[in-house]
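Page 47, continued from p. 46.
Same chain as before, 322 aa.
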Amino acid sequence: MTFQNRITKLFNIEYPIVQAGMIWASGWRLASAVSNAGGLGLIGAGSMYPDTLLEHIRKCKAATDKPFGVNLPLLYPDIDQHVKHILEERVPIVFTSAGNPKTWTQTLKNEGITVVHVVSSAKFALKSQDAGVDAVVAEGFEAGGHNGREETTTLCLIPQVRQAIDIPLIAAGGIGTGKAMFAVMALGAEGAQVGSRFVCSPEASSHDNFKTAIVKAGEGDTMLSLKRLTPVRLIRNHFYQVVSEAEARGASNEELVQLLGRARAKLGMFEGDLEEGELEIGQVSGQINDIKPAAEIVQDLWNEFCATKEQPFYQPAVRPVI
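Result:
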């Protein structure tokens, strides 16, 4: 099925599927695999030192001749160095997040870079459009990683953002299947950003223990936590329980920051400590039952999207009469 819309044209990709730029998961191997499969792969710069990002950009360029991008958290302390490497290596696409899009958008666009900003509300989507971004990602409450404080679900968020802006819109949060992708596009999105499903791939740089924990996770096994700092959705484990108890007794922000520590996410997602580490993942983890190559994930998403487009309504299975 040949498909084109504003997202495929904007990124020059085959399918309107974007792999989220996730810390400790989306290095050059995952990004290049998704791009080679027809989607848009993103390198997650949030967990990388500047020299590490430079290495991943160069290796990604060697591994694919397709478009790829970098996810750039705007609160990163050495962001000027990240931007320097992005400009020097002529990365074609940058997704910014966790900050004011006005800060770097024009600098990037002046160099011919396509800029997308991640938001959690219609209000900030409109501000992003006013800042000159080329598209926005609207991320619902279901998502893993760092979320907005509004707790608006993807199902409610996408129509409101669509009504507020004119530029292309990508949906994120709770999307791990082609059916979910079809649903958000019916609501007004023009593409889907998928994170958790791609963590469970051999190309993801996250630890195998973390991937196995995601496969084992069921409904209700993730919770939004640390809302007073930066909201993050976590798999329930000992670290989550300690944080939850601290929040319940009214711990100060300073105490929560000390409890979180600098390397807690690395400990969990990259080093595989399933009890003391921070395990960031979306609610859709309850639907993920296996680990498979990124290219297969892209094709599964697209095949199911196309099948749903042809027959969008639920068809109950006919049980044989015995």
